[in-house]
Amino acid sequence: MKQSMKEKISFHLFIVGMASVLLSASLTTALFHRVFTKQIQHDLALTASDIAAAYDFLPSPSELFLFDNEEIRITLISANGKVIYESDANSVMENHLTRPEVQAALKTGEGFDERTSSTMGYTTYYYALLLEDGTVLRTAIDVENLYSIYNEALPAVMISCIFILILSALLSLFLTRRIVRPIEKMADDLDNIGDTVPYIELEPFAKAIQQDQQTRKSSEKLRREFTANVSHELKTPLTSISGYAELIETGIAKPEDVKSFAARIRKESARLLRLIGDIIKLSELDSADGEPQLAAHFEDTDLLTIARECVNDLQVSAQKSYITLLCEGSSAKVQADPGLITELCTNLCDNSIRYNHAGGKVVVSVQDTPEGAVLSVRDNGIGIPTEHQQRVFERFYRVDKSRSKATGGTGLGLAIVKHIAMLHGAKISLSSTPGEGTLIRVIFPHHK
Ligand SMILES: Nc1ncnc2c1ncn2[C@@H]1O[C@H](COP(=O)(O)OP(=O)(O)OP(=O)(O)O)[C@@H](O)[C@H]1O
Ligand SMILES: [Mg+2]
């Protein structure tokens, strides 16, 4: 499911807002609590020292009731822990010697303590002061504890959260618009995406689009060139066919020439058929969306078997050109489409026979190497000049147009070879020296 940017931003803003409200609420409360506790301790100590100053002048400890007030509890405890006076009537009168503040006062002169009653929801702060007569004067005060302070703050925190929720929704709306608008602008003008990309983060995306546009443009150009080339190549044989047919039709051709004209028509038609066959093959191997339309049937294939068959099939045509055609090497198994590999091998051998001298030699060899299974075709023919070596795999590319045409070549053979190799994940290497010969190696990677 696609995510909404607005929702995502809004959610994160809300989380951050909530976290900061809760954090600052807890921190403030904690800080407040600390200051508050200090203040209370100070007040208790002050009250205790006031009472202590007056204590010497009191006729009896019971007179301490004079200092009673609503908030502060006063207790007078003897050195052995017995309660001598207690201002809070409800208080328990058990021995107070165990109380930490009393113990501390007996030891050091004064003592503090705070005890929280979880059930009552308040904390009691105690201050104990050792008097000169050895008794301990204690002041105490009950204060609502931290939890109840939190409880009181809760509505405020809730309101803040709701406020933040609304604020994050609004803010995210605003932010999303601000972030998205430049992207929309960029999308409006994809042709200049390199200049209009608004964020560094989008640069890889922009690059991908640019690359895509470039490949589309260049493949469009290739396609146009291809169409122009095809039309041109079709035109030549058709022109001569219609020329010979016209000669026969109009009776210009002498009756004894008709047979040879018909033979020429047949030859040109054969050339046309071969050309159209090659074009169909190429377009099957390389369709527009990059996925070959042709369903290749990959199976365990021995390159040596195919090379032998191919050499057998071409033996007659090699002999006609006075070429020795041989097959050597050892078995090498690959996952491949046998029909396509035969086509590949035939095209390579055909070239080596065609672009050769009478008495030349062509060797097809198969080897299983650590690098992969290698099918190579070597000849000692005319060779390919260095400047043409990169381009001979292009469609309709011929080094020597006149020679190729004389032998019936259209420049599609190596393009087909290249596509078949690509389909099998095989690499092609070409090395050639004009006047000495050519070696083309097709390397099929080993499958794991
Ligand atoms: N073994 C070779 N020796 C010398 N030149 C070669 C060899 N193989 C290919 N070439 C050169 O490369 C060009 C392209 O070869 P390719 O097989 O693609 O086309 P073609 O042989 O002209 O026509 P097609 O194979 O379609 O009948 C050839 O025209 C030729 O000039
Ligand atoms: Mg060829």
Question: What report would you give on this structure?
Answer:
By secondary structure, the protein is an alpha+beta fold. The protein has three domains: 5-149, PAS domain (Beta-Lactamase, 2-Layer Sandwich); 202-285, Helix Hairpins; 299-444, Heat Shock Protein 90 (2-Layer Sandwich), CATH 3.30.565.10. Helices cover 54% and strands 18% of the residues. The chain is built from eleven helices and twelve strands. The protein is rod-shaped and about 165 Å long. The structure holds adenosine-5'-triphosphate (ATP) and magnesium ion. Adenosine-5'-triphosphate (ATP) is lined by residues 278, 347, 351-352, 355, 379, 381-384, 392, 397-400, 404, 409-415, 438.
Which CATH architecture of the largest domain? Answer: 2-Layer Sandwich
Write down the CATH class of the largest domain. Alpha Beta
Mean pLDDT across all amino acids: 88
Low-pLDDT sequence parts: none
- Order of strands, main sheet, comes to 2-1-5-4-3
Task: Assign a percent range to the helix content.
Answer: 40-55%
**What is the CATH superfamily label of the largest domain?**
Histidine kinase-like ATPase, C-terminal domain
Number of domain modules: 3
User: What is the approximate shape?
Assistant: rod-shaped
Percent of residues in β-strands = 15-25%
Following the backbone from N to C, one meets helices and strands in this order, namely: HEEHEEEHHHHEHEEHEEHHHEE
Distance between the termini: 37 Å
**Main sheet?**
5 strands, antiparallel
CATH topology descriptor of the largest domain: Heat Shock Protein 90
Which class do the helix and strand fractions yield?
Answer: alpha+beta
